[in-house]
Write a structure and sequence with these properties.
Layout lengths: L1 H11 L26 H8 L8 E2 L9 E8 L3 H17 L3 E9 L7 H15 L4 E5 L3 E3 L13 E2 L3 E2 L15 E5 H6 L13 H11 L13 E4 L12 H6 L3 H4 L11 E7 L4 E6 L5
Parallel strand pairs: 2-3, 2-4, 3-11, 7-9
Antiparallel strand pairs: 1-3, 4-8, 5-9, 6-8, 10-11
The structure holds uridine-diphosphate-N-acetylgalactosamine and manganese (II) ion.
The site of uridine-diphosphate-N-acetylgalactosamine has 22 residues, from strand 2 and helix 6.
Membrane topology: Single-pass type II membrane protein
Subcellular location: Golgi apparatus membrane
Pathway: Protein modification; protein glycosylation
Length: about 290
């Protein structure tokens, strides 16, 4: 009985906030994509720590931020398994209160990465009062767990040094890959544009929105911001769209009328796996 009383006393004490710097980070990580990983492997490997839908929060302290990870997706299941395999343990060590949302574009219309991000933002907020949104490609795995998947006082570009780009920024204003925006920052720019169909430009458009709304971006240094991209070719129905280049001239005029304020889509299915929430959507791709 003494033990029981002791346990009750501990559980009644309010939890302390988690420390600023998570104590169990490892720094540089080993990452390889040669191993074949099934979703079942991932469930067994990280599942026991998670709640249905790919949710987690630290048991012994109150997380600094509630973070929704939003992943645009279509037919990259092998990449998804690698991503889940590597990211869950990292996010857990980072002591985040987080959920993983895979936003799956239905059908074989032209892909729209940016619109999927907007949809993820809205759908995640229907579930929990997330304060921070990390938008991540499915094929990017950090090589250093000190790269925190959190938001800061500025919109943040996390994938600074990607192996595919020889660990260098291809250009200074690049804002593709993995980014983190607080709910406030994302609202201030009216989210992503919904009108970038096909490959390219949507990330530069977001950068311009941020700039035009008077903000600037932050980045970790190139040691901490290292990433490995899973090797891949160009997907079908996601060809580079030459119109997208022209559209970058129009960002300023489109911010308020094209984005979260004009978002229209249909949710076809929401599937809760142990390791992620998989939301299939009709993005109303042009015929
Ligand atoms: C670059 C950017 C990316 C985005 C893209 C242009 C970096 C590191 N990455 O990536 O953020 O701006 O250019 O649109 O700067 N996807 C699917 N299925 C598809 C097509 C795309 O799941 O059929 C998703 C998936 O999450 C993928 C992402 O969209 O990682 C971006 O597509 P990509 O990987 O083909 O583009 P990439 O590597 O050129
Ligand atoms: Mn890629």
């Amino acid at each position: 009985h003494q033990n029981e009383t002791a346990t009750q006393a501990t559980s009644r004490r309010p939890l302390e906030p988690c420390p600023d710097i998570p104590p169990n980070l490892q720094g540089v990580l080993r990452v390889e994509f040669r191993t074949n990983r099934t979703l079942e492997d991932v469930r067994q490997h990280v599942g026991p720590l998670l709640q249905q839908g790919g949710r987690y929060k630290p048991a012994n302290c109150v997380a600094k931020q509630k973070v929704a990870i939003i992943i645009p997706f279509r037919n990259r299941y092998e990449h998804l398994n690698h991503w889940l395999h590597y990211l869950h343990p990292i996010l857990i060590r980072q002591q985040l209160d987080y959920g993983v949302y895979v936003i799956n574009q239905e059908g074989d219309g032209v892909f729209n990465r940016a619109k999927l991000m907007n949809i993820g933002h809205n759908e995640a907020l229907k579930e929990y009062d997330y304060e921070c949104f990390v938008f991540s490609d499915i094929d990017l795995v950090p090589l250093n767990d000190r790269n925190l998947y959190r938001c800061s006082d500025k919109p943040r570009h996390l994938s600074v040094a990607v192996d595919k780009f020889n660990f260098l920024l291809p250009y200074n204003t690049i804002f593709g890959g993995v980014t983190a925006l607080s709910r406030e920052q994302f609202l201030k720019v009216n989210g992503f544009s919904n009108t970038f169909w096909g490959w390219g430009g949507e990330d530069d458009d977001l950068y311009r929105r941020i700039f035009f709304r008077g903000m600037s971006i932050s980045r970790p240094d190139s040691i901490i911001g290292r990433y490995k991209m899973i090797k891949h070719g160009r997907d079908v129905h996601n060809d580079p769209n030459p119109h997208n280049v022209q559209k970058l001239e129009e960002t300023y005029y489109n911010i308020d009328r094209d984005g979260l304020s004009s978002l229209s889509y249909a949710v076809m299915e929401i599937r809760k796996d142990l390791c992620h929430t998989f939301i299939t959507v009709d993005v109303q791709a042009p015929a």
